[in-house]
Design brief:
The chain is an alpha+beta fold. The protein is built from four helices and five strands, in the order αβββαββαα. Strands 1-2-3-5-4 form a five-stranded antiparallel sheet. Residues 12-144 form the Protein kinase domain.
Length: 144
């Protein structure tokens, strides 16, 4: 990637796009030191929808969060055109995806999922964080 932050290029290999947001693309990344797969959110600073204060708030919030049911932020890189957030890769899909695949989703399964989600929300709320876009991911929940 031309112009990519030299530190990012040294530490990670950048792979294909795996997701997209209003002013960012999420790419598969590989940490060179240990081969670990990560998600790299590439934020376009030139995008008409880019607001640095929103991105800085997202970064500050993610730095506070340390919970097994919440995505971890590993590294942050910056260059003239982009900001790069290196995060834990979550590949299991959503709980709803899994429920649709299952032939039987019991009350006990629902209670377990709810407990995991509520524990994550409790952690966020204890930090003063209100999340408006909760995506429950299978990899973040140990029940499946």
């Amino acid at each position: 990637m031309f112009g990519m932050d030299a530190g990012l290029r040294k530490d990670y290999d950048m792979g294909p796009a795996i997701g997209e947001g209003s002013f960012s693309i999420v790419r598969l990344g590989i940490r060179r030191s240990n081969g670990e797969n990560v998600a790299i959110k590439v934020i376009d600073k030139k995008s008409i929808k880019f607001k640095d204060n929103v991105v800085q708030r997202e970064i500050a919030t993610m730095k506070l969060v340390d919970h097994p049911n919440c995505v971890m932020l590993y590294d942050i890189y910056d260059d003239s055109k982009h900001k790069y957030l290196v995060m834990e890769l979550v590949t299991g899909g959503t709980v709803m995806d899994r429920v649709v695949e299952m032939t039987h989703f019991t009350e006990k399964d629902a209670a377990t999922v709810t407990t995991h989600v509520l524990r994550a929300l409790e952690h966020l709320h204890a930090l003063g964080i209100t999340h408006r876009d909760i995506k429950v991911c299978i990899d973040q929940l140990s029940m499946f």
